[in-house]
Design goal:
Length: about 270
């Protein structure tokens, strides 16, 4: 099963959703691989406290190589190349981290033939990662539409879209559905939103309740079963290199958040399998 966290906007919670869905699915007995394509900041590695280990390894090879001409040479000459790319987290899922070389990949992809440029990541997953027998592959994508994003979307075909509540954010969500229709027509694919996740919701306010109800009406078929509440503990956990699942004394809102991620992750599996 593959899914990608994406919305054409930064700071909406894509990385947090990827991390929490990864741990939630691991808790349910799935072997999970998370892949960070979101850029050199390597936030997913930070989320699991792996940044120092990854930087010390110098990541040779790294995920950026998948998109350039050196990849075929690497595959032929580096034994167990996917193992070389992959790091274990303390919370269960494995991680292929981002790399600063991803910043150059978009321009390099633009020079490739149209029929090839958006399929390279799918080819990597199909030819090299699927043999590792993971049950779930979760992809964290950039908060903008570029050639890396299109590669990730085409490889995953299922989209997780975290969204905060507000008029501007709902416009972004509407634009996402419109963009996917264009991508599908251009790429002859079926990329679809599997789950809209109401994120950082303040449901104790009248405005928060109203906006949540409106989102559930507008996206009844794809909205997540449970919203993610606003919680400072989510940020605190992230800064300390963990998810809320690893907190020993979570606050009430953090407890509700991880329960919500667990329920939503289970539902995601059902929707993908359908």
């Amino acid at each position: 099963m593959r899914a990608a966290a994406f919305l054409d906007k930064g700071g909406v919670g894509k990385t947090t959703a990827t991390a929490h869905f990864g741990v939630a699915l691991h808790n349910d007995g799935f072997d999970v691989l998370m892949i960070d394509l979101a850029g050199k900041q390597n936030d997913l590695a930070k989320h699991f406290g792996l940044l120092d280990e990854i930087e010390a390894s110098e990541q040779k090879p790294n995920i950026a190589h998948v998109f350039d001409d050196s990849w075929d040479y690497i595959v032929e000459n580096v034994p167990d190349v996917v193992d070389q790319l992959t790091f274990e987290t303390d919370e269960g899922p494995d991680l292929i981290p981002a790399h600063k070389g991803l910043d150059q990949v978009d321009d390099e992809l633009a020079s490739r033939p149209v029929e090839d440029r958006d399929k390279m990541f799918d080819d990597f997953l199909t030819s090299h990662v699927e043999s590792q027998e993971y049950d779930v592959i979760l992809i964290d994508l950039p908060g903008l539409t570029n050639n890396i994003t299109l590669n990730g979307l085409q490889a995953a075909r299922k989209v997780i879209a975290p969204v905060e509540l507000g008029e501007f954010e709902e416009q972004q969500l509407k634009a996402l559905h419109e963009d996917l229709e264009e991508f599908n027509a251009a790429l002859d694919e079926t990329i679809e939103v599997s789950m809209v996740i109401p994120n950082r919701v303040q449901s104790n306010t009248n405005l928060g309740k109203q906006l949540l109800e409106e989102l559930r009406e507008d996206y009844a078929e794809t909205v997540a079963p449970v919203h993610i509440p606003q919680s400072q503990d989510i940020r605190n956990a992230q800064k300390s290199g963990k998810t809320t699942f690893a907190l020993e004394e979570p606050s009430n809102t953090a407890t509700r958040a991880r329960e919500a991620y667990q329920v939503n992750a289970n539902e995601l599996v059902d929707r993908i399998n359908e």
